[in-house]
Write a structure and sequence with these properties.
The protein is 49% helix and 0% strand. With 102 residues, it is mostly helical. It has a domain of 66 residues. The protein starts with a helix and ends in a 16-residue tail after the last helix. It binds heme C.
Length: 102
């Protein structure tokens, strides 16, 4: 009987430890409300360590993200936003916001 109590306690503490491990760490973008931040968090750490904003040159990003269109499915506007976000620039205006051409 005491053995099962011990196992239950062990299971509870493992669950607690995992709960702590799963709490996302706070970073500079934790309070950033832009949807692209959520996209970046959910899609960009699936295959490799997440690429942090400002850690790659714009050329490197552009070239690498170009190779990612077959790996990650985002809209054209999202790619533009993601590239701007990772390049640590203000997001470019989405294509729909540009005035209609005459
Ligand atoms: C389906 C798997 C996959 C996903 C998802 C993925 N990548 Fe990659 N990524 C790779 C592979 C494989 C490489 C190495 C080959 C290359 O450079 O294209 C790579 C390389 C890179 C590189 C160039 C190497 C470096 O570290 O500078 C960047 C930048 C990059 N990824 C950014 C991203 C971003 C941003 C996302 C989120 C949109 C993302 N990746 C999501 C597979 C993935």
């Amino acid at each position: 009987m005491s053995r099962s109590i011990w196992i239950a306690l062990l299971a509870a503490s493992v669950a607690a430890a995992l709960g702590i491990a799963c709490t996302p760490a706070k970073d500079a973008w934790s309070d950033d409300p832009r949807p692209i931040v959520t996209t970046w968090r959910s899609k960009c750490a699936l295959c490799h360590t997440r690429v942090e904003p400002g850690t790659r040159t714009p050329e490197k990003l552009h070239e690498a993200l170009g190779r990612h269109h077959v790996r990650v499915h985002l809209s054209d506007a999202e790619w533009v936003e993601l590239e701007a976000f990772l390049g640590n620039k203000a997001p470019a205006a989405p294509p729909s916001a540009s005035p209609p051409s005459p």
